[in-house]
Write a structure and sequence with these properties.
Blueprint (H helix, E strand, L loop, with lengths): L3 H29 L4 H4 L6 E6 L5 H18 L5 E6 L4 H13 L4 E4 L8 H9 L4 E4 L9 E5 L1 H16 L7 E5 L6 H14 L4 E6 L6 H15 L4 E6 L2 H13 L15 H9 L5 E4 L1 H16 L3 H7 L2 E5 L2 E9 L1 E4 L5 H5 L6 H4 L5 H6 L4
Parallel strand pairs: 1-2, 1-3, 3-4, 4-5, 5-11, 6-7, 6-8
Antiparallel strand pairs: 9-12, 10-11
Helix pairs in contact: 1-12, 3-11, 4-5, 6-7, 8-9, 11-12
Length: 373
């Protein structure tokens, strides 16, 4: 569960950073109104539609949804509500859920699109109905109003650097397997590009696989294939785009007889992945602050509905391009490489997990070995 005091401390840190930029711009709002007439009619009684993609990624159910719900309530004097739906890895189900949100006339939609291209039709329908759409975590196509995520190319770069750093002088001749994500996910290409910018020319990339719907079972089968083709003892490292696949990769390595794991990367800082980092089975994971991403998404959604254009601009200080739209207002949250050395300073300090969450009896000795107790 999320620890109360660390989370409150993290919220205060976020609030201080945002207040500085918002307060400075608010002075200008006094002279120009800073809101459009249609949105200004909405007060605190608003409904935020939230569409998340799957339940296999632990963070969505455990962190993103509860944090967004909590922040919307906090921003609206407990009058605002979140209407939530999970697509359970089905693009057709997500489209049905999206259309129902439109039919139910929610005030704004936050969508983490399973397929960035196919969702564009639904985004356009929302636009036609006057409902703002904010792309969350993944950049959807169509006329979206804002994008809240992380610098996803940087995620791949962080993963690639971790592999190069761990291999050290042996990197040049090292054989590396790449387990990429779902090609239908727009983030996959960015993760991959970032990783390749660090790995190409530095290591020998012997196998690359795309993983439909990010399914660990597919990643495990592909890893078993790589082991057969490359040889277990010849694989020096595995780039895994996320933690679910990292766990599957490690299972395949174990089943093939590996007693010492090559460096395996991950992403999302799932609890089981953090425990694998503690035990040495997984080398690293990319920690993307759920708190920062979720709370900022809620702030943008509420501000957009309430017509507070000045604050909205302050929260989206960057822009990104999609294949269908240029200069999309964006909030890109920083990422951190989580290893044994900084577990305390990342997921524990931010209140994502407690030491007790991580250091269960199975991991007590490993936790003690790295001073986590």
């Amino acid at each position: 569960m999320i620890a109360r005091n660390p989370r409150q401390a993290a919220v205060r840190r976020i609030a201080i950073a945002l207040t500085v930029s918002v307060s400075a711009l608010s002075l200008a709002a006094c002279g120009d109104g800073g809101s459009d007439d249609a949105a200004a009619k909405k007060g605190d009684d608003i409904t935020v539609g939230l569409l998340l993609p799957d339940r296999d990624t632990a963070r969505f159910e455990k962190f993103d949804y509860p944090l967004i719900k909590q922040e919307v309530a906090s921003l609206t004097n407990n009058q605002g509500t979140v209407r939530y739906a999970n697509a359970e890895a089905s693009t057709s189900r997500q489209s049905e859920q999206f259309r129902k949100m439109i039919a139910d006339k929610v005030d704004v939609i936050l969508v983490d699109a399973l397929n960035s291209k196919t969702i564009a039709t639904d985004v356009q329908k929302a636009k036609n109905a006057g409902i703002p759409v904010i792309a969350y975590d993944r950049l959807a196509e169509g006329p979206i109003d804002a994008y809240v995520s992380h610098d996803n190319e940087l995620v791949g770069q962080v993963q690639g650097r971790a592999i190069i750093g761990e291999l050290g002088d042996k990197a040049e001749k090292s054989k590396v397997v790449m387990m990429n994500g779902d090609p239908a996910d727009p983030n996959t290409a960015r993760f991959k590009d970032g990783a390749l910018s660090e790995l190409q020319g530095q290591v020998d990339i012997v196998e690359q696989y795309d993983t439909k719907e990010w399914k660990p079972s597919i990643a495990k089968a592909n890893m078993a294939k790589a082991i057969r083709e490359v040889g277990l003892n010849n694989i020096a490292a595995v780039y895994s785009a996320n933690d679910g696949m990292a766990g599957a990769v490690i299972e395949a390595l174990k089943e093939a007889g590996a007693t010492k794991m090559p460096p395996v990367t991950g992403q999302d800082a799932n609890l089981d992945a953090v425990q694998r980092v503690v035990s040495g089975e997984q080398y690293m994971t990319v920690y993307k602050s759920f708190l920062l991403e979720a709370t900022n998404a809620a702030k943008i959604a509420v501000a957009k509905v309430q017509g507070r254009a000045i604050e909205f601009a302050a929260l989206t200080r960057e822009t990104v391009d999609s294949p269908t739209q240029k200069n999309i207002p964006a909030m890109l949250v920083p990422v951190v490489a989580l290893t044994k050395d900084n577990i305390q300073d990342t997921v524990i300090t931010d209140g994502v997990y407690t030491v007790d969450d991580i250091c269960t009896p199975k991991y007590k000795a490993d936790c003690a070995a790295i001073g986590l107790k």
